[in-house]
Amino acid sequence: MKKQEKYNSVPVKPDEITPKHIYQNRRTFLKQMGVVGLGALLASCAPGVTSTPSTSETLSDITPSGIGSELENQLTSKEAIKGYNNYYEFTTNKERVAELAQDFVTEPWSVNVDGLVENPGTYSTEDLLSNFEQEQRIYRMRCVEAWSMVIPWVGFPLHKLLEEVKPTSEAKYVMFESALVPEQMDGANSGMFPFPYTEGLRLDEAMHDLTILATGIYDEPLAPQNGAPIRLVVPWKYGFKSIKSIIKISLVVDEPPTLWNIVAPQEYGFYANVNPNVDHPRWSQATERRIGESGRIDTLFMNGYAEEVMPLYEGLDLTENF
Amino acid sequence: MTGRKKRFNTVKWLRILVNVGGWVPLLILTIKYFTNNLGFDPIQSALLRTGRYAVLFLILSLTCTPIRKILKIYVVSVLRKPLGMFAALYAGLHFAIYAIWDFQLNFKLIWQAIIEFPFIILGAITLLILAILAATSFQKIQRKMGKKWDLLQRTVYIAAVLDIIHYLLAIKGDLLSLQGNYTWPLIAASALLILFILRIPWVIRTLKNLIFLRKETRQR
Ligand code: HEM
User: Fold this and answer.
1) ipTM
2) Lateral strand order in the sheet of A246-252
3) What's the whole-model pTM score?
4) Does any ligand 1 atom lie closer than 6 A to the CB of residue B86?
5) Pocket of ligand 1, candidates B166, B168, B184: which has the most ligand atoms within 8 Å of its Cβ, to mutate?
6) Can you tell me whether residue B131 is helix, strand or coil?
7) Which of A73, A234, B155, B203 is the most buried (most CB within 10 A)?
8) In sequence order, which residues have a C-beta less than 8 Å from that of residue B56 and are 6 or more positions away?
9) What's the CATH class of domain A3-313?
10) What mean pLDDT comes out for the span A197-217?
11) Ligand 1, closest atom to CA B185?
């Protein structure tokens, strides 16, 4: 980026942050998880909003700060979020994933955090839920196939976990690996893809406050098709970066191999930042279909999170490093 | 006399089968649309369905000639035209869904896509060929064009090859290393390859001999 540009973040509208239908029936789940802060939170105005779990009624009163009103987003329905999934370990048919994944065993579960860290550790789902304050984050999700959703995640920033394991000074990248259980995953044996699914982020991207590990959607724990019990969500990158059902997080020196980059490096880069100006070789990325709406809307630079994330990419040629 | 009557009946029924059957996918699509059964991304669903129907009908229309020549079942030749017409119909619908429903007639974006992406160019050329063939398929025009008409008809092979490549490119993955779900486009490609092989005169002769010599020996 030679020219100094000013980026505006395009947050989700405030009245969408806690629509009635969410806070009215999310209590049980959120209470269990001890959810506190909410909102489409921006790096510059990280939550800081806390309340005791017993006062979940007051969740509705919390108005996250720093929320603009430029975006006319509607939350994508729970049915669509749970019924339209890319999860190739099960099938390449988006509308069949839910059914094929329903018996996927996510309990017990553990995530190994290792590599270049001072305190490597193994975390169970319960550890992740209880050690880290769960908050709601409403993010756009933009798939590289040019469709999108607006999803109310529940989770916690990845940097909180990383701060606990303490990356050493050599660590430059974070590598993630998905579970691969061929007996439970119909598509995993087809030989169509080099599973296990792996993904990676630069350490500074992983430390960014927008990057979260998600444990729930709306008022429910993650469903298997959405990446239960724990998945990554990086809202300014194409959906395939947000790896599902994580079993391993490693801090490493070199750029880790990532599944879609292995499969088709000319089409799927390591960065995979949402960028309407850099087309996929086979289709344009300038517009997208928002699931549940008809017609197309313009795709936002960095998926609308440019203000927060552009400092990460100063001096980087985004066309070359797509 | 009875033989002729029987043949007439077969022709009639085959014609009805194709002319009714060809509308069934469209009917199902329409019902699914109006009953909200096209899934969470109805545009994509309708786009992919019509694309696949176009390929299916195109391949079916190309099976008529080999069946006639090799199996000497002459009645199927009356099906070639309606099958080709349905291929053109579904290809046209496929593009209409893309241009009208998906891109809301944003001509700038559509044109950009057509000139910029090989995947879309292939589809566009295929559609163009199919449209021309459909438009010139009337007997009056056929008679007027004479020999040229036969030549023009041959472009259907180009269309068939291009649409299969378009199909292969529509799949997310890597074609060269075959990583991705290429099952159906590869089945379509194999079918097309077999149909091409079945047009080689030497193959036709050999197969014909094989089939009909056997029949004769059996009859003796
Ligand atoms: C200008 C003309 C055309 C355009 C703009 C076009 C556009 C597209 C697009 C965008 C897709 C991918 C949809 C997706 O993956 O989301 C697609 C898929 C497809 N198209 Fe076309 N197309 C055209 C012509 C044709 C023609 C003429 C045929 C066949 C005769 C055809 C057959 C197919 C098939 C079989 C698929 C894949 C379906 C699947 O993956 O199941 N297309 N087309």
Assistant:
1) 0.83
2) A121-124, A110-115, A246-252, A173-178, A198-202
3) 0.83
4) no
5) B166
6) helix
7) A234
8) B87
9) alpha beta
10) 97
11) 35
